Task: structure prediction
Amino acid sequence: MHRLLLTLLLTIPVAHAAGVDADRQLTNSLLAVTQSRMPEAVTTVDQLTQQHPNFRLAQLVKGDLLLARARPLETLGNIQSRSAELDQLRLEARQRVHAATESLSQDKVPAYLLNLDDSYRHALVVDASRSRLYVYENRAGLPVRVADFYVTIGKAGAGKQKEGDNRTPIGIYTISGFKSPRELTDFYGGGAFTLSYPNEWDTRQGRNGHGIWIHGSPSSTYSRTPRASEGCVVLANDDLARLGHYIQTGKTPVIIAEQVEWVAHDALDSRRNDLAEALDQWRQDWESRDTPRLLSHYSPSFRTGPQDFQSFGASKQKVNATKSWIKVGLSKVSLMLYPERPDFALVSFVQDYQSSNLSDRTVKRQFWSRENGRWKIIHETSL
Result:
């Protein structure tokens, strides 16, 4: 077996499902080499380069396979000297082969999607370590994987902190809009879905920057290498077009993680129930008009708008004193754990508040943090 393929495939299990996507075509060619089916390998990659002549990695593999007719290959690109560009193309090859051949069971789901309200049709989960974006369909609140795509992230990796650091943010965001190719330069390819970075928690943590998008690739390049953007998530243009079918502008959540935590459905159920019970107890204690009981659900570092925990507590004490009864209804509840932080969550819902002298309806987003074993609200925004 060529050392090239040993390097690429390592011990990744081979999947037998056929496909016509770029990942599968490229992988089929490389697997044909490992099985000494060189004519088939060349034919497969030749078809890929005809379909996507600007696919640099495919052109590199094609050149290697043609060269292999004359002499053994040492590595992808057939040179041993260090080259940052070749290193990135080799990483792209590994990431694509891994995604096309890995056995990612439907029994395992991202740990973050605890509950999605029915109004969310899909959710997107980006795994920076795998250069992969996964699409999950919301089926009665439960996530089911329906598609995945190769993506590029920031040159400096994930974990954005400030403007210009070339990092992709880690967190939970929303697709806030779409910019068509007519509004952009060719650099963005087929367009750009804008993200709600920085969110409220990013702002509170002092993170800044702007223009974090999910966008396409220049017409001269089928795909960019795994770490090549200034912080955006970048796809091939045909993949971006397919991704667009799953997106509700202003609605679809995007969870970006350095490395996705995969859990079984029963583990997801346990985490969901734990947070849902804390949310419902908060609602009941608000209805009790017992202000100390209500405030026990808030972190000492809680903030909402200009109010900190002390001023918020004083306001609640004053307001509750004017009520003879309170009823709080919660609907359209969504629960999502924060990536990299299993004891941190984003909760959103529609709040129907009724009392003896006031009624209103509000959309709320709350960040919850587990402190000393108990879930508490650390930040709240009313929309």
Remarks:
- The radius of gyration is 25 Å.
- DSSP finds ten helices and 19 strands in the chain.
- Confidence is low (pLDDT under 50) at residues 1-19.
- Residues 3-101 form one domain.
